[in-house]
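Marked as duplicate of an earlier ticket. Keeping the data here for the record.
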Amino acid sequence: MRANSLNLLRTVTRSTRVRQQSTAPQFASSAFRCSSTSATPSTDRQWSTPLAKTLAEAITTTGPISVAAYMRQCLTHPEGGYYTRQTSTGQDQFGTKGDFVTSPEISQVFGELVGIWLYAEWLAQGKNEKVQIIEVGPGRGTLMDDVLRTISSFKSFARSIEAIYLVEASPYLQKQQAKLLSDTEDLKKSEIGLQASCKYIPGCRIEWCEDIRLVPKEHTSTPFILAHEFFDALPIHVFQNIAQSSIPAASTIITPTGPIKPKHGVTTPQNTWHELVVSPTSPYSSTGTTTTTATENTNERLDFELTVSKTPTPHSLYLPRMSNRYKQLEKTQDAIIEISPESFAYVNDFAIRIGGSNPAPETPPHGSAANASSPKQQPTLPKPQPSGAALILDYGPSNTIPANTLRGIRAHNAVSPFASPGLVDLSADVDFLALAESALNASPGVEVHGPVEQSFFLSTMGIKERADRLLKNAKDEETRRRLETGWKRLVDRGPNGMGKTYKAMAIVPFKENGPVRRPIGFGGDIVA
């Protein structure tokens, strides 16, 4: 396996892209528990940001909001959201000068190996034509830049690419990506958004759109989809299993027709899922919240806090009942689960593009994550011959349901997710098993491999050997230091590394006949 991937590495350009590296941790987990309800915000109260005031006024009028709604407003509010506000003022949230650094920013080898993975899958599937390269949440475009530079070394694969699609809602980031990938900021209008020529592949166009549903979906296309640190930023709903008071068996019950003796005690359900919602903190509180985290500044007043919804919400009535994984926790008092319906909708789209869709049922299937996305949102797509693949790289547990993982990141430090709304990046762990379950329910033509640790994925792809080649060609000691510390951080399984926390998962075509083919990086080998 490794020898074959190394042969591919030798065909890749030897140019070294030098980047500064941050030694700050990528993120730190935040734990929290529910607290009491909050007082109505005063009109003369000082809020940490304009967005905090806007949210507080809305909550005062309509009531507490879900964590998902809070995340969505904090990240994408048109006038004060994290990505919108940062980009509109010319600031950059990526890299050492921003709030966080990602794997492609740490080492060019990461993107090169992703490009080789796509090439290996294309070979294994028979060198299909009409290839689409799709990335959701491309950030600066750094990953796609390394991927396309690598792919351009494999001429036959490059010629098969029909178009490259970047799903990006930020106009500022679209321009950054275009400057990097097309050497221009002058984007032309297209049917789905904007477009420009790819500087690495002559005659190939790059198109930008705000929603993956705008990307053409055809049964003859071969889509290769990349989602790197994308799902962690999608909104989550948080639920806690609250114990209800039980009514002990009574000797008699008074009824209009007289007393009766029941055979069994009358009880209410022992546990009920309640949604944790966001509301303003009391203006009289000393710290502003009962949230507890390992890195929280206890002297900082927070604008918002988590509270337990006193009544069922629409989401608490059905989301915790979607999967047997959640049902198994119904008897566990105070269990907390995080569910991301938007993540299910995206991974369903990936699976349908690759393997086609299941016939639309008369009623949604019960007991699976497929319920999170209505059949009306996923039109049928017959695909007699499944093709393409999706590679998901993100952080989260391998086989458990995330709980207490909502976090804020600012200047490479973990902060409360309720600090300075709009100025802090928000994220949560990815539930990889839920993504796999959703993909398999969405399409009969796909199978899922992983998740595997990033260290395993990159090591089997040949990261050490590729890094050694770059180190030999390094022109100075500083370049050598950055290259060496960069690639080692990607595979380091320690607390300061990314090799264990980050995972890789692949969605590939399912073949009904013949043995299971494992993709390279997931226990398989190159298929020539």
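See parent ticket for discussion. Residues 359 and 433 are 23 Å apart (CA to CA).
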